[in-house]
Amino acid sequence: MALSVAFLGLGVMGYPMAGHLARAGHRVTVYNRSSDKAASWVAEYGGTAAPTPADAVRDAELAMMCVGNDDDVRAVASSAVPVMRAGSVLVDHTTASAQVAREVHVAARARGVGFLDAPVSGGQAGAQNGKLTIMVGGDADVFAHAEPVLATYARAVTLMGGAGAGQLTKMVNQICVAGVVQGLAEALDFALRAGLDAERVLDVISKGAAQSWQMENRGKTMIADQFDFGFAVDWMRKDLAICLAEARANGGALPTIALIDQFYARLQARGGGRWDTSSLIRLLRDPG
Q1: Which of 24, 50, 144, 264 has the fewest CB atoms within 10 Å around its CB?
Q2: 83-86: long-range contacts at Cβ-Cβ below 8 A with a sequence spacing of 24 or more?
Q3: Choosing from 170, 207, 220, 238, which is the catalytic residue?
Q4: In the annotation, is 170 catalytic?
Q5: Residues 6 or more apart in contact with residue 236 via CB below 8 angstroms
Q6: Per CATH, which fold does 4-162 belong to?
Q7: Residue pLDDT, tens place only, 132-165
């Protein structure tokens, strides 16, 4: 069934996600802080562009947002929620804190609006191919209403618990990713220094217990020293800061993540803030 939907934030993830909604036949209104990006999206997919978040969501049955950080979530939600219709749903795909998810959930409920925190995993390629994994926090009835639409750009959409549970699950995801990338960087640097054919090593070990998404999708580019794509170091540091703050609050210990975060800070200092997170191997090749 075609619905009136809004999408707020047309970055590298939001742009193709909103495109999948349009291709599925939904009536899509988009908002982006840079109006040129919104105009480009409309030229490619149709639909309409709105000058503010409030204008975009005013008549929407579902509204999705994918912005930068907690402050962006608060700003966009504070514009959108007061004008949304009772019974409509706001879905936040931003990777943000569980605390801001709970704040927006309370504010939305007070207006009769459903809210889901629904961060995604799968990167830009997953967004473009409609193969994202979406981990969701919120009320079960709201999830049941929104899930068929979210499935437009996902291969898995899973309710993890109440408000904030989606963001907490994404933190678990990022903790795992950071550890795997660092391990892969050390392993490939070791292979190269040992005089092995690193690509052949990848081919062999990817068929065993060492296999991972990072190995399959980043191993060869790490060997080739190519990092001008993918999930940026700046974004990973934002995510790891959220993880570390949550661990301080819940008493968890993340010693490996704290160390890897320092490694990413060194890459930023080298001008690598926009390099892919797999660029950790550069610190091993050139400790500086």
Answers
A1: 144
A2: 83/54, 83/57, 83/58, 84/57, 84/58, 84/60, 84/108, 84/111, 84/113, 85/59, 85/60, 85/61, 85/113, 86/111, 86/112, 86/113
A3: 170
A4: yes
A5: 174, 178, 264, 277
A6: Rossmann fold (3.40.50)
A7: 999 999 999 999 999 999 999 999 999 999 999 9
Tell me, which fold does domain 168-285 have in CATH? N-(1-d-carboxylethyl)-l-norvaline Dehydrogenase; domain 2 (1.10.1040)
Please state, for a pLDDT cut of 90, what percent of the chain lies above it.
99
Q: Is the dihedral of CA 14, 15, 17, 21 positive or negative?
A: positive
pLDDT in tens, 67-107: 999 999 999 999 999 999 999 999 999 999 999 999 999 99
Other Cβ atoms within 10 Å of 64 Cβ, number = 27
pLDDT of 181 above 90: yes
Q: Residue 130 CB: number of other CB atoms within 10 A? A: 18
Count other Cβ atoms within 10 Å, centred on residue 113.
Answer: 25
User: Would you say how long the chain is, in residues?
Assistant: 288
Cα separation of 65 and 58, whole Å? Answer: 14
* pTM tops 0.85: yes
Q: Give every CB contact of residue 9 below 8 A, 6+ residues apart in sequence.
A: 31, 32, 33, 65, 66, 67, 72, 76, 94
pLDDT at 288 exceeding the cut of 90: no
What six digits make up the tokens of 262?
A: 């320092």
Structural contact between residues 10 and 45, judged by C-beta atoms closer than 8 angstroms: no
In the chain, residues under CATH classification 1.10.1040.10 are 168-285
- Tokens encoding 199: 């690509």
What is the average per-residue pLDDT within 39-44?
Answer: 98
Cβ proximity of 5 and 91 under 8 Å: no
Comma-separated ranges of CATH 3.40.50.720 domains in the chain: 4-162
Residue 1, pLDDT > 90, answer no
